[in-house]
Design a protein that fits this description.
single chain, 360 residues, alpha+beta, eight-stranded mixed β-sheet, 11 helices, globular, binds iron/sulfur cluster
Length: 360
């Protein structure tokens, strides 16, 4: 047992001072899926969770091993509502429909906003719909066509999953099987692991084809940050390069690069000044060597993750405790005495992860 996360009797109601989070419905996301009746496992890694490991291994232990997170934010809710609306817009266009099904868009937005445990700020459902209406008009005449997948379906909000590497472990871990393996909640035996097959997973928002027959996977970003420095930060994005690698794997054609589709929104100032709404696009080209290096690097990180898991020790990286978005969501847990941390992590300041890119 990790000495910093001791195996204690949990008192979920015992932590005060933290905001109460509402557990979303759905099965708890677990790290491993057993392959048939073997001791081999599939481990899905997606960008949003695995980039946390690259920032700070301790963060990954909280989110990937204990499956705890802070329950989301209004920015994430607004972003998901915009994504659902863009999915309707591009599916309508791909199917040759003259009109977007706006009733379906409103229904998606309402579903995203229903039962939120926090208040909406300027990112209201009405604002989301207004942004989507403006987007549909602004990009009414795209200079691109929408790619189809291998079944002829529009490549819009498509999940992907394929194996990057196999990592032999051959060790009994200190973790209980129930903690790490999907659908084995009643098995409290220590988990024996033979080989871990690491799957690269995610959801690609859209794939465009340009008039010169180049593929451009698209990632929609809702953001309140804009400007050259922000856009430039995606030029070496592991997510963008990894999505290009995924498209090359799926469609057997190397994309020219990624199209960053930025939907910028901010609260207008009291005097009505400042940009409250903008639509921007940037193209990021990637060479084959960058896709290859992304794969080597990701496999290397996955091997280190498995090493940390096998040792049951995930080191902290305090340079990641604060970033441009504010404090790390686990800051309060890391401030607690090591012997209190697991109790804090399991308090209602956090919820279990139920999101899975392959299930959405
Ligand atoms: S607060 Fe700092 S050390 Fe703790 S998980 Fe976050 S980044 Fe890591």
């Amino acid at each position: 047992m990790n000495e910093f996360l001791s195996d204690i009797d949990l008192d979920f109601a015992g932590v005060s001072g933290a905001p109460k989070r509402i557990q979303p419905p759905g099965p708890i996301r677990r790290l491993f899926q057993r392959i048939d009746d073997t001791n081999d496992f599939v481990m899905d890694i997606d960008w949003s969770t695995f980039s946390g490991y690259m920032e700070c291994a301790q963060k990954a232990e909280y989110s990937m091993i204990y499956s705890r997170n802070d329950g989301g934010s209004i920015a994430l809710t607004y972003g998901r509502a915009i994504h659902k609306g863009l999915e309707e817009i591009y599916l309508a266009r791909a199917r040759g429909h003259l009109e977007v099904n706006w009733a379906a868009v409103v229904s998606h937005i309402n579903a995203e906003y229903s039962g939120l445990p926090f208040e909406a700020d300027w990112r209201t459902p009405e604002r989301a719909l207004d942004t989507l209406l403006k987007y549909d008009t602004f990009y009414a005449n795209e200079p691109y066509s929408i790619m189809a997948d291998e079944h002829g379906d529009p490549f819009v909000e498509k999940p992907f999953s394929y194996t990057l590497c196999a990592i032999p472990v051959n060790k009994t871990l200190l973790h209980k099987t129930s903690q790490l393996v999907k659908s084995e909640e009643n098995n409290d035996e220590p988990l024996h692991v033979g080989t871990i097959y690491v799957n690269w997973t995610g959801v690609i928002d859209l794939v465009f084809m340009s008039k010169d027959d180049h593929l451009w996977p698209v990632d929609h970003k809702t953001t309140s940050i804009a400007g050259p420095a922000y856009y430039k930060s995606f030029a070496l994005s592991g997510q963008f390069i990894g999505y290009c690698a995924a498209i090359q794997h799926l469609l057997h054609q190397k994309p020219a690069g990624m199209l960053g589709n930025f939907i910028v929104g901010r609260k207008a100032s009291a005097k009505g000044k400042g940009v409250s709404h903008a639509l921007e696009r940037e193209l990021y080209t990637y060479e084959q060597w960058q896709l290859d290096k992304w794969r080597y690097d990701t496999v290397n990180h996955a091997e280190k993750f498995v090493h940390d898991l096998s040792d049951n020790y995930f080191p902290a990286n305090h340079t990641s405790c604060q970033n441009k978005y504010g404090l790390c969501k686990y800051f309060a847990t890391c401030q607690a005495e090591p012997s209190d941390r697991l109790q804090h992590l399991m308090s209602d300041a956090y919820v279990f992860n139920v999101w899975n890119p392959l299930a959405d």
